[in-house]
Specification:
alpha+beta; globular
């Protein structure tokens, strides 16, 4: 088995331990597990024990697990208007999704020095009541400021709802969506279209690739190097999220593979992105955005091919698209029930019809923002207005249809353990398959000798 898969499995179990076990017990059991897996694995690669132990040490020192009432802490938060999500506490990551309230603050990122007055737990999240001692707004970087300026110039003649949607799907400012828009998108099952992810990164790469091929006489390697630079500039200019981080890393791996003439497998790229994302920020695994993003791609890589072989042998791309949508929806159902109390019943139908329209809106939005850099974004505005009109009408139509989604609240232990159990089963089956293959190769080699 590839070393990267085993390392990803070890890191996952370490983090699941931090989620469900006492801090000290998790450290002990994780150490035993890492050493045991190294001993019983035939491939004694040093990275198999070195990287998980380094990750464990990083997790020990990077998670804040000792905050109590009366402490004075520095909170790095992102204010969404009604609630502020805590990103860091004294430069450390919280072990659970944590929030506090900031009154009379605009949406954006803040550094808050405050005394903790009360800590409450609700829906497995922590909520802090604090007395604010110092409040400081975090200024966006220059690339983000430039993107915001160009977007403001482009959007000045658009209506309120479109401006908010544009800022969500192009700049990653998902918090700008109104409650009504969120409710509609959640009900019909197209919330993923509003979050910067693999679709958007693929669109950026395709758009820039087409422009570079048309305008500049570059060799293939030079074009891919420039694509990587442009993709990185875009990444630095938008609001980051776990889904965007995953998509950017996978996009960068794809382009690096093209630059160095190396084949990049989707499964390996996904796992490498997963490991790198968690090394950078171990707390991101607690984010629902992270879980949905990797869960969706995992469904595409592993769950969809298995489902397809069981129920369909034909070659129709349309039917395959329906099966793919259903596979992702089915695989993510435990997460949706656990976090949102909802089951998407008929939302695969809305995805079939609305995704193509939404894709056109997003594509035209990217083109308009690109042209706005030379003050020509207005050329695309009529088309963009028309596309958004069709999109909004389609959203309202499907929102009026009953049973697109139904509420179903369940907090059973099965939903919590579904994905850890799934990963363990996949790991065991993969391990046994590779062991059987190696044994057959060994026997054939021995006979030939």
């Amino acid at each position: 088995m590839e070393i990267i898969y085993i390392i990803a499995f070890e890191i996952s179990l370490i983090l699941f331990g931090f989620m469900f076990l006492p801090f000290n017990l998790c450290i002990i059991l994780s150490s035993i597990f890492i050493v045991g897996l190294y001993i019983f694995n035939s491939n004694k690669n040093i990275f198999l024990i070195l990287l998980p132990f380094l990750f464990l040490l990083r997790a020990i020192f990077i998670f804040d697990h000792s905050i109590k009432m009366g402490d004075i802490k520095e909170f790095q938060v992102f204010n969404y208007g009604t609630v502020s999500k805590i990103e860091k506490i004294d430069t450390r990551y919280p072990l659970k999704n944590s929030y506090l309230s900031l009154s009379n603050c605009k949406e954006g990122e803040y550094l808050v020095v405050a005394e903790v007055k009360n800590i409450s737990k609700k829906y497995n999240n922590l909520y802090y009541e604090v007395d604010v001692l110092k409040l400081e707004s975090v200024v966006p970087n220059r690339v983000q400021q430039y993107f915001q300026e160009r977007s403001s110039s482009l959007l000045k003649n658009f209506d309120y709802d479109f401006r908010r949607m544009f800022q969500a799907v192009i700049l990653g400012e998902n918090y700008r969506l109104s409650r009504e828009m969120r409710a509609k998108f959640n009900y019909i099952g197209i919330s993923h279209l509003m979050a910067l992810s693999g679709f958007h990164i693929t669109l950026v790469i395709s758009l820039f690739s087409s422009l570079l091929s048309f305008k500049l006489p570059l060799k293939k390697r030079e074009r891919n190097m420039l694509l990587l630079v442009l993709l990185t500039i875009y990444y630095l200019g938008v609001q980051h999220s776990p889904s965007l981080n995953r998509a950017y890393i996978m996009g960068a791996i794809y382009l690096l593979g093209k630059i160095f003439n190396e084949n990049t497998e989707l499964a390996k790229s996904l796992v490498f992105s997963y490991v790198l994302s968690l090394i950078i920020n171990p707390a991101s695994i607690f984010s629902i955005s992270f879980q949905l993003s990797y869960g969706a791609v995992l469904a595409i890589v592993g769950f969809f091919p298995w489902i397809k072989t069981k129920i369909y042998k034909g070659k129709s791309k349309f039917i395959e698209g329906i099966i793919l949508t259903l596979s992702i929806q089915l695989f993510l159902t435990p997460l949706l029930i656990k976090n949102f109390g909802v089951i998407q019943v008929l939302s695969f139908i809305s995805n079939i019809f609305i995704l193509p329209i939404g894709s056109i809106v997003i594509s035209l939005s990217f083109i308009a923002l690109l042209l706005e850099n030379i003050y020509l974004g207005s050329l695309v505005v009529p088309l963009l207005n028309f596309a958004y009109y069709i999109f909004s009408r389609a959203v309202n139509l499907f929102y009026s249809i009953p049973l697109m989604s139904i509420e179903y609240k369940d907090d059973s232990i099965f939903l919590t353990l579904f994905y850890p159990i799934f990963l363990v089963i996949v790991f065991i089956l993969k391990f046994r398959k590779d062991s059987t293959k190696n044994e057959k190769i060994f026997k054939r080699t021995k006979i030939s000798q």
